[in-house]
Every structure is written in structure tokens, then in C-alpha cells.
Amino acid sequence: MRWAEVLLIGAEAAVQCGDAKASEWYNAVRARAGLGEKEATLENIWEEKRIELSMERDRYFDLVRIDKIRPGYFAARVWAKIQSEQAGLELMKELGIASESTFLPLPTTSPVETPKNYVLPIPNEQILLMNNLEQNPYY
Question: 59 with 47: CB under 8 angstroms?
């Protein structure tokens, strides 16, 4: 973990708590990069994290955490398209544009299991150590 990431995580938490330190920490990262000061908003901090930590392989988890992406979103869109194509074919059959023998070789169930991919499992050791801790759903 780099110092810039620590500062940006702190700035994000400070913005959410209404702490004035957010601007100081956020602009410290920008100053080190030779950039001018900017208002510390969540959107600005997330953008700075995207740029500053672009090669750190944490971007995906940040996007999931801030609800900007959901695992399975693309697959869900593909599934919706499949359903739309199937409905269109059925309509064409009803109108007599397509023959009854026409079919689309498409899956019949959705491959998307978004909720499971949204959180990680809690290690069993931690569950055993803490009596009131429950495993995340789907694990």
C-alpha cells in the first residue's frame, strides 16, 4: 500500500464524516504530483484514486465498494438481450414472418449470480473467534 493510497482512503472517509482533513489529505496527493488544489468531493477523490493507483489492481474492488459496478452486470445485460431476441422471434412467428421451425440456440437460464460476487466470504477462523459473526450470504 502506498502513502498516496492511505491519504486518499483517509480523505474519502473524512468527506463521508464531514471532517475538514479531507481537503488537506486529498490536496497533499495532488501537490506531490505537481497539480493545483481542488475541492475534496467523493467524485474528485475517486477520480484521483483512479489516476494515482491505475496500475495497483485495486480499481475493480473500489468500483464494487462504491457501487459503481456490480459483478455480473455485463452478463445480466447479455441475458436481457437474449430474452429480447427470443421475444422478437416469438412475435415474428405469431405474425407469420418466421416459420415455426425457426429457433435461436440460446441458453434457457441466466448465468448471473450477482449477490454472491458482491461480497467475499468471511474466513472461518474469524467466525469461530467471534460468536456473533455470521457468514456473508451465499457462502
Answer: no
What is the DSSP code string of 46-97?
Answer: HHHHHHHTTTSS-HHHHHHHTTS--TTHHHHHHHHHHHHHHHHHHHHHHHTS
Asked whether the CA dihedral 64, 67, 68, 74 is positive or negative, the reply is positive
What are 99-116's pLDDT values in tens digits? Answer: 877 776 666 665 555 566
Q: What is the pLDDT of residues 9-56, one digit of tens each?
A: 999 999 999 999 999 999 999 999 999 999 999 999 999 999 998 888
What grid cell was written down for 122? 468471511
Tell me the domain boundaries of the chain.
Answer: 3-65, 71-139
Distances in Å between the alpha carbon of 38 and those of 7, 48, 101, 133?
15, 11, 63, 41
Supply 82's cell numbers: 437474449
For 11, counting Cβ atoms within 10 Å of its Cβ (0-12 exposed, 13-18 middle, 19+ buried), the class is buried
